[in-house]
Amino acid sequence: MAKLKLMIERLSEKEKNTIKNEIAQVERQAELEVLRAEKEAEQALVNEKEKLMNDLEYDYSMKENTERVNYRNAVLKERQKVIQRTFKEATEQLANISKEDFMGIVMSALENVDVTQRVEIFVGAKTANLMDKEWLNEQLPWNNHVNVKEELVKNKAGILVRMNNVDYNYFFDELILESKKELLAYVTNALFEEEK
């Protein structure tokens, strides 16, 4: 009986050791699984943080770019308003130009052509009352080549000078339009230069 008891105890001890080993192995495996899960969770957290940071940086960059564009557009709009107002005022001033100033423009226009050749001046109907032929003849007494035409150019203010079938346009609306194009191009370029 003692042998049987000893055998049972040995079997029982062997079984206990086997169970202990299995438990230890399962515990090691569980610890490894926990470590692997912690590392995966840490890496997932790092990845999520990076993704959030990238998303935030992207959103910030997009918002910043949008604000820059909005600011530039607002500045451009205000500058265009100033330009529009300036040209409107210039148009109004030219509509009320004095006879002396008008004749000064005529003389300046004639300085740009060879008045020893045949030159024709066409006057706009809106400024016909400002054209002083007598004054012009006094300024150019030696010149018989400059001829102020009787026909008026409808709906225009200013003059057109024709020499050798080439027209030099000094109509106020055209001069203002040309100046406006140049100034708008300048302002636009200046605005985009500021952005750099």
Describe this structure in words.
The protein has 196 residues and is an alpha+beta fold. It is built from four helices and four strands; from the N terminus they run ααβαβββα. It has helices at residues 2-95, 99-111, 133-139, 172-195, and strands at residues 119-124, 146-153, 158-163, 166-171. It has a four-stranded mixed beta sheet. α1 (2-95) packs antiparallel against α4. The termini are far apart. The mean pLDDT is 84.
What are the salient characteristics of this protein?
4 helices, alpha+beta, 2 domains, hypothetical protein PF0899 fold, 4 strands, 196 residues, single chain, four-stranded mixed beta sheet, rod-shaped
Q: Low-confidence runs (pLDDT<50, min 5 residues)? A: none
**What is the number of independent domains?**
2
Shape, per Cα inertia axes: rod-shaped
Instruction: Provide the CATH superfamily of the largest domain.
Output: ATP synthase, E subunit, C-terminal
Name the structural class.
alpha+beta
SSE pattern, N- to C-terminal:
HHEHEEEH
| Helical fraction | over 70%
Helix count, DSSP H or I runs of 4 or more residues: 4
CATH topology-level fold name of the largest domain: hypothetical protein PF0899 fold
Strand content: 5-15%
The main sheet comes to: 4 strands, mixed
- Summarize model confidence as the mean pLDDT: 84
- Alpha-carbon Rg, integer: 47 Å
- Terminal residue distance: 101 Å
| CATH C-level class of the largest domain | Alpha Beta
In the CATH hierarchy, the architecture of the largest domain is 2-Layer Sandwich
Query: What is the strand arrangement across the widest sheet?
Result: 2-1-3-4
The total strand number stands at 4
